[in-house]
Amino acid sequence: MGRIIITIIAAILALQAGVAQATIVEVSAATDKATYLFGEEVTVFVTAYNPNAEAVTLSFGSSLMASYMMDGVFDWSEDKVFAQVLTQVTIEAYDSHTWELQHGLYEWEFHPLRVGTHTVVGEVVGYGYSPLVEFEVVPKPVPIHAAIDIDPNTLNLASGGKWITCYIWLPGEYDVADIDPNSVRLENEPNAIEVEWIWFEEEDQVAMARFSRSKVQEMVEPGDVELTVSGELVDGTRFEGIDTIKVINKGRKKK
Questions:
Q1: C-alpha dist (Å) from residue 189 to 219, 220, 238
Q2: Cis omega before residue 190 (within 30°)?
Q3: pLDDT on residue 253
Q4: What sign has the CA pseudo-torsion 66, 70, 73, 74?
Q5: Judging by beta carbons within 10 Å of its beta carbon (0-12, 13-18, 19+), is residue 123 exposed, middle or buried?
Q6: What pLDDT score was predicted for residue 20?
């Protein structure tokens, strides 16, 4: 009986080996960009191309079908859980199938991407590896300093009102009209809100941005609070400025 089982297993393995030899695919890898700012998420594409005149079916022993090796030391699939089910992908003749994998916050905990050149090799599990692909990580550009004045200087959490107004001045070589209105944010780490309305006075070179008063009140506590206003110019140049306001919580006195 034992010999029969062994013979059956051997036959299955031989059949699988024959199928694997017949279903040849070419594996390649690519990243969504060639250059990343430090801290940016990297997307890795792993592709299996079928160069044959007939469709091929790739079979996998689990839901893990593709992976990547970053810098020769970090295996994307390691410490991840995959469903233990037979999975198949059919690729038509001269067609391809691509898997999209992320090197995001979770992966950064185990393998942070420092400034410099990095390498990635894609894998279609059981069917081969891609050639090595390189990409660069560069430092985040230092934002230009903007002068910021937030009004009111004292914010009462118990008071009403609709807006918090922020006046923005850029260094002399920049034009406030080049500020991208959709990029302007007011921050009190870790919270941030987007601008509701912005107006540019080109003659005086000042931008007036309005933020929701209720949203600002939700992200501050009584005391002296540093608020950061940041954004980008249309050419991608970042700016940033800080102003300190006093936050109080005083209701109206009863008569």
A1: 9, 10, 18
A2: yes
A3: 54
A4: negative
A5: buried
A6: 43
Instruction: Give the span between the Cα atoms of 208 and 161, in whole angstroms.
Output: 17
CATH architecture label of 2-138: Sandwich (2.60)
Right CATH number for 144-248 from 2.60.40.10, 3.40.109.10, 3.40.190.10, 3.40.50.300? Answer: 2.60.40.10
> What is the per-residue pLDDT for 213?
93
Is residue 59 a contact partner of residue 88, using CB atoms and an 8 Å limit? yes
Q: Which residues contact 107 (CB under 8 A, 6 or more apart)?
A: 70, 74, 76
Q: Are strands 74-75 and 66-70 parallel, antiparallel or unpaired?
A: antiparallel
For the chain, the domains span: 2-138, 144-248
Computed from CA positions of residues 148, 149, 151, 154, in that sequence, does the dihedral angle turn out positive or negative? positive
List, for the chain, all residue ranges whose pLDDT scores fall below the cut of 50. 1-23, 255
pLDDT tens digits, 116-147: 999 999 999 999 999 999 999 999 888 999 99
2-138 and 144-248 in the same fold: yes
